[in-house]
Amino acid sequence: MEKELFFMRDPWVYDSQSEQFQRPDSNLGFDTRALHAGYHPLGDMEQFRAFVPPIVPSMTYPYKRFDEIPYPVYGRTKTPTAALLEKRLASLEGGEACLTAASGSQALFNLIFNMARPGDNVITTLNTFGEGYKQAATIFPERCGVEFRFVENPADPESWDQEIDDATKLVWVETPSNPTLFVTDIAAVGDVAHSRGVPLMVDNTTATAALQKPMELGADIILLSVTKFLAGNATVLGGAIVGPEELIEDVRWNTTEFVGAIMQPFDSWLTLQYLETLSMRMERHSLNSQKIAEFLVDHPKVKQVNHTGLASHPQYDLAQKQMSGPGGLMSFVVEGGVSSAAIVMDSFQLICHAVTFGTSRSICMHPATITHEHMTPKERAAVGVDDGLIRLSIGLENVDDLIADLDQALGKV
User: Fold this and answer.
1) 8 Å CB contact between 146 and 121
2) Which of 5, 82, 371, 384 is spaced 20 to 30 Å from 176 by Cα?
């Protein structure tokens, strides 16, 4: 019975023999945790006797007695359904605790706002998602007095070390990056950050824990856009941070409590259902994207293909080492810049033009004019955001149909 009830316990428990905190579900496989972590139908919420975790939409929780304050007490900080999702995400990423947010961008903002003060700095690169760059380049420096330093050569650990000083509060890596799929050596950058007493945060949105385990490589904090592959079908908006319980609860009670932007019960409940198929979906995304990358790399109208599964990728060996699959995000450059990209994208019959990625349906987007428009032309050039770059989020369709759609669209250029 003891093993059956591990789902009911807190994510970490104290083992008196080893004098360390141990994760009760650490001996179980990823797919098992994606289905079970945080909830057992015969134990948790027994009053519902529900095989599927229930949605608890209440935003306030009544007191039994004057001196018995419940937890959660109010929906700005936590709800039972969001709490279950947080336990599951923490389990999948291998962290002590998790806090959800209204979006991935909101999760980043809450974390930085909580950790950094005027005069502090954060070290990152230009290889970040567009809204993250906007926060780093203008919002935090201009409105909060927090400096963001962009590493010149992110492939060189020494380049990271040169930017860190006594005022550095965080090192932030996004890998593989959106939209050019730059792969950062998590272990190497983690070693640099830790040698200077600074935590490492890894944005694991594009790979997810199904394909990449940053905490096993030295990451201290994980940033997630739940909106993307974790949910997988464009019905949920949400984000999360995973990390040490002390940090997560500090953010919860000193930032989120006042912002009030956690994932709502229904979105949390939907995400719990979608996580059950995460591993299978990421495998199919990876298989489809690999075949499409191999098709595009030989196409005469394509100048460049960014995909971690291609041997021509600059960090191919590193990607093979630190990821178990390429995932579903990729990009390619067509000859002729913006005008050619527009022709190709307008010619798609199956692939949809939309501003997101990580969905079961394939999506295209033009980074230079949408997500990365805030960057200067010089900055876009530095990270490979060419005017002819098209980002592809490869879905779960029959791959031959997707290749046929790409072929006919490229034929219009």
Assistant:
1) yes
2) 82
Residues in the chain: 413
Domain ranges in the chain?
Answer: 4-275, 279-410
Tell me the sheet residues that pair with 225.
239
The CA angle 395-399-404, to the nearest 5 degrees, is: 110
Long-range pairs, 2-8, Cβ under 8 A, ≥24: 4/40, 4/42, 4/43, 5/40, 5/43, 7/36, 7/37, 7/38, 7/39, 7/40, 7/43, 7/44, 8/40, 8/43, 8/44
Amino acid at 96: E
pLDDT digits (tens, 9 = 90+) for 243-274: 999 999 999 999 999 988 899 999 999 999 99
How large is the greatest C-alpha to C-alpha distance in the chain, in angstroms?
A: 74
Q: Which amino acid is at 39?
A: Y
* N- to C-terminal Cα separation, the chain: 64
The pairs formed by 8-16 with CB atoms below 8 angstroms and a separation of 24 or more are: 8/40, 8/43, 8/44, 11/38, 11/87, 11/90, 11/91, 11/96, 11/97, 12/96, 12/245
Q: How far is CA 85 from the centre of its chain?
A: 15
Q: Choose the CATH number for 279-410 among 3.40.190.10, 3.90.1150.10, 3.30.390.10, 3.40.50.10090.
A: 3.90.1150.10
Q: How far is CA 56 from CA 73, 79, 201, 267, in A?
A: 13, 7, 31, 11
Cβ-Cβ contacts under 8 Å for 92 (sequence gap 6 or more): 30, 33, 34, 37, 209, 210, 275, 278
Contact 289, 393 (CB under 8 A): no
Q: Are 183 and 307 in contact (CB under 8 A)?
A: no
CA-to-CA distance for 139 and 267, rounded, in angstroms?
28
Two structure tokens written together for 93:
């990423």
* 3-state DSSP assignment of residue 331: strand
Tokens read off for 97:
């605790």
Cα–Cα distance between 29 and 7 in angstroms, integer?
A: 14
- pTM of the predicted model as reported, rounded to 2 decimal places: 0.92
Fold of 4-275: Aspartate Aminotransferase; domain 2 (3.40.640)
* Res 47: pLDDT: 65
Q: Phi and psi of 159, rounded to 5°?
A: -65, -35
Q: What is the mean pLDDT of residues 61-65?
A: 88
Residue 2 — very low, low, confident or very high, per pLDDT cuts 50/70/90?
very low
Residue among 243, 233, 270 nearest 107 (CA): 243
